[in-house]
Amino acid sequence: MQESNPTETSYTALGFYHKISQLRSDTWNALKRDLGILVRLDGDSSAKNLIKAVDVKLTRLEIIEDYHAFPSKEDFRYLWALFHRGEYALLDKVVKRLVRALISESYRRRHVDLSETDAGAEDMETLDALNQLRRGHPASNSSAQPYFELLIVDNLSNQEEEVVREAFHNMRRPEDRFVYDVVTVKSFEDALIAILVNPNIQACLIRYEFPYKSKYNLSALRNYLEGLSEKKLEHQTEAERSILLSSMIHELRPEIDQFLVTSGDVEATASKDIQHFNRIFYRETDYIEQHHTILRAIDNRYRTPFFDALREYSKKPTGVFHAMPISRGKSVTRSHWAGHMIDFYGINIFLAETSATSGGLDSLLQPYGPIKKAQEYAARAFGARRSFFVTNGTSTANKIVVQALIKPRDIVLVDRDCHKSHHYGMVLAGAHVSYLDSYPLDDYSMYGAVPLREIKKTLLAYKRSGELHKVKMLLLTNCTFDGIVYNVRRVMEECLAIKPDLVFLWDEAWFAFAGFNPTYRPRTAMNAASTLRYRYRSDRYREEYNAWKAEFDKLDPEDDATWLDQRLMPDPDLVRIRTYATHSTHKTLTSLRQGSMIHVWDQDFRQKVESSFHEAYMTHTSTSPNYQIVASLDVGRMQAEMEGFELVHAQVETALSLREQLYNHPLLQKYFRVLKNSDMVPEAYRESGVESYYDPVTGWNKMEEAWAHDEFVVDPTRVTIAIGNTGVDGDTFKNEYLMNKYGIQINKTSRNTVLFMTNIGTTRGSIAYLLDVLMKLAKEFEYRLEDSSRPERKIIEQQVHSLNHELPPLPDFSRFHDAFRPNPETPQGDIRTAYFLAYDEENTEYLRFDNGKLQAQMREGRDVVSASFVIPYPPGFPVLVPGQVISEEILYFLQALDVTEIHGYRPELGLVVFTEEALLNPADG
Q1: N or C: which end of the chain has fewer CB within 10 A?
Q2: What is the DSSP string of 216-260?
Q3: Is the pLDDT of residue 68 over 90?
Q4: CB–CB of 847/857 below 8 Å?
Q5: Rounded Cα gap, residues 701 and 331, in angstroms
Q6: Which InterPro entries does the UniProt entry name for this protein (predicted)?
Q7: For residues 496 and 415, what is the distance between their CA atoms, to the nearest angstrom?
Q8: What does the pLDDT look like over 93-106, one tens digit per residue?
């Protein structure tokens, strides 16, 4: 009998890292299925192939489970014993129980002895499975002790492994806040594989001596072990190898608490660079001390200072004699009409509703207690030096950072298609704005990101005009709505080579989750800032820089190619790392709506920014912030530290599964074409040459290569689908087909694309439902085409052609009018003056372009200048800003748009523009 599971052929090796948890789950279910059939065959001759299939699956699972605590190595020896004895009926029974324990996660709550196959044991697993269904997810059982796994790295025999495991088991007490099990591995490589494939590992104990090579020949580490070799490591001391392993574990999963057990000179080891170890133990240290130290370290991440304080406050009897009748629920509990509000929300949200800043609580505006501690924990989690909570969204977070750093007339280089909050922030700050154009994706009516070459070219222009000292900040969107991600480290490095004190503001509204995945993390602002800070302090970098500078000085500094055609390196004696990131925590991690954070890695924060930052924070933050949002940010941080790696990994897995089905299904492909890396990132920006992360034969094995080298990459969790072949535009498809018919909600569309975003809450079931809906729609479009008459078919073909081939080119930023340009030799504009000039109606007029009146004025030689922001949805960025000269390309784009929502434009009146008189002396206006 042939193996019938179609998904198995897509798993080419255990090195198929991106889908390892799905491989694990699917293989256990396939094994359970095969054993059920094998038992029913009862010795039939056709069972030979099935026995071989069971053997293959057990072998595969043994490798995977070697890195998990349950089932244990002893459990697997029991499974093999049953298999080799031919006791397939009992093996079937044991595997079913094991699978139930994995599904219900009962192993997290109690010891599961697989040798106990009586009905009582099976009933317990069934009960756990039913409880899981009732709760929705086992993690929602707040009364259970949180479970984690401890990784021990030591070259132990099987018997020694059992002794160590039993020793730690004996340390556990009912009063412990957490419960844990032990995973043991024997080598350097196995330790790294374990922390990649097992998200339950939260602590690591590195003991004694261990070899480098794994007994398995796996590809999962190919991108993490570059530059290392067994030969290189064999001359290292025990301490040196342990420190190197610790450093690599920290790089892959920085949240893991690490401990070193050494048999050597513990005092000498402690004096080395062991920054990633929480503590060093001498080998004679007893297990109970290690046990309590590990639990204390886990508790330090598990704490939620403000959420705990708010829960405690809600239990206190208080007399409320201040504003907010709803505080303590008084105004609704006593109501004859509003009681259903409590029925819906529950009482706790009202008991915790207060504006008090004492009694165990804290002030968001000037935190000194639990909010301060919660923000410190957030900085640790996101790799920042400082973090600040924002309760009214990332739009406000952006304005806070800009106001804190930018003075009137400072020049800011801004990604032109960034979020509108940045444009308005420039108005409020009085910045002189120099807009940067992203590369266009005209075929899909969307923009990519700003090429590094264009940024460098702009900085060089300011350098040569003598105005580089006025350039204060570079503002870019890292991970655009469509999922385009910068090579943050490279952008910062090369820009700092031109202007060593340049401030960076990375809008990572859609990228808060990225810090909890080893592939994504290096492209985050905080990680790049930290990496560069320590790199520039090293002797090795100084040597590299001196060698580079010697060659650079031989070139002509006045030739653009000298700066643009090679990678630049900043002077370590001049460079300052000044980096800010804003996160919409609520968009990609757990938080209530409008819960956002500001993260800071700025060497000059204390000396130059702290005071102005505080004032900006006070300006934009409510004096009555919503404590529920603050508490949710605290909990969201804790969750990200404790299980962010697992949740983000699962998010990536579900997105890859969706992409894989859409890539391979002929009917789905016909109407819904998933945009690949090469569709969204032009070849010039793909140094790796990777066109798609997916290959039908080798699977998802190219993602890390692209993310390690390319100037831009696409976040695979954002699945952009071209729908031009349906003949339905994006907005109609979103509303009439997805939402109205099937209740599927999406945010982003263009004229011929729709964007499906997965997140940490997306399940395999959600993906299955979406695929089912897309199949139904594909069949509907197929039947529509088959059943249409010749005229109807002609109409459909015209619609398809229009959506695929008649898309207006995306316009670049034209220029600011000379009236708003402080220096005619450089491109920046005074957007604030233009914005407020329009407040006086006599300075503006309306011109319609649908009747040609505006075009006629342009043909007569008039510079027609926009007096407002004009923002069509989609694409959702300003096509025009105050003070910008209107170009033919912009008008053509606006005329070709078939969207109904354009902010700043009234069709019955036209575009609001400045009168020619107002432009003669705008400062007087």
Answers
A1: N
A2: S--STTTTT-TT--HHHHTTS-HHHHHHHHHHHHHHH-TTSEEEE
A3: yes
A4: yes
A5: 59
A6: LL-DAP_aminotransferase (IPR050881), Orn/Lys/Arg_deCO2ase_major_dom (IPR000310), PyrdxlP-dep_Trfase (IPR015424), PyrdxlP-dep_Trfase_major (IPR015421)
A7: 18
A8: 999 999 999 999 99
Per-position DSSP letters for 382-413, written without gaps between them: HT-SEEEEESSHHHHHHHHHHHHH--TT-EEE
Q: Are 866 and 881 in contact (CB under 8 A)?
A: yes
Cross-sheet strand order for the sheet of 910-914: 844-847, 910-914, 905-906
pLDDT of residue 1: 34
The amino acid occupying position 279 is: R
Spell 235-269 as b/e; 16+ CB within 10 A means b. Answer: eeebbebbbebbebbbbbbbbbbbbbbbeeebeeb
- The residues, any chain, with a CB within 8 Å of residue 828's CB and separated by 6 or more, are 411, 432, 433, 434, 816, 821, 822
Q: Decide if pLDDT at 3 tops 70.
A: no
Q: What tokens appear for 508 in the block?
A: 């990572």
Q: Is the pTM of this model over 0.85?
A: yes
- Distance (Å, whole) CA 565 – CA 769: 48
What would the two tokens of residue 516 be? 């909890």
Mean pLDDT, the chain, integer: 89
Q: How far apart are CA 503 and CA 525, in angstroms?
A: 12
- For 302-328, letters b (16+ CB in 10 Å) and e give bebbbbbbbeebbeeeeeeeeeeebbb
Quick: pLDDT tens for 145-168: 899 999 999 999 989 999 999 999
Cα distance from N-terminal residue to C-terminal residue, the chain: 85
Contact between 703 and 653 (Cβ < 8 Å) = no
Cα(248)–Cα(491) distance, rounded to whole angstroms? 24
Question: How far is Cα 78 from Cα 82, in angstroms, rounded to an integer?
Answer: 6
Across the range 327-353, mean pLDDT stands at: 87
Burial 558-573 (b: 16+ CB within 10 A, else e): eeeeebeeeebbbebe
Contact 292, 284 (CB under 8 A): no
String of DSSP letters for 472-505 = EEEEEESS-TT-EEE-HHHHHHHHHHH-TT-EEE
In Å, what is the CA distance from 903 to each residue of 473, 750, 874?
27, 17, 11
Give the mean pLDDT of 857-881.
90
**Cα–Cα separations (whole angstroms), residue 56 to 62, 88, 569:** 10, 15, 52
Angstrom distance (rounded) from CA 657 to CA 650: 10
Based on its alpha-carbon atoms, the radius of gyration of the chain, rounded to whole angstroms, reads 30
Cα distances (angstroms) measured from residue 491 to each of 93, 405, 440, 505, 545? 57, 20, 19, 12, 17
Amino acid in position 902 = I
What confidence category does residue 264 fall into, taking pLDDT thresholds of 50, 70 and 90?
low
User: 712 in helix, strand or coil?
Assistant: strand
Determine which helix (DSSP H) or strand (DSSP E) holds 10, and give its type and residue range.
Answer: none
d(CA 275, CA 667): 54
Q: How many CB atoms lie within 10 A of CB 623?
A: 9
Which residues on neighbouring strands pair with residue 656, listed in sequence order? none
Return the amino acid letter for 544: E
Give, in degrees to the nearest 5, the angle at Cα 123 between 119 and 124: 120
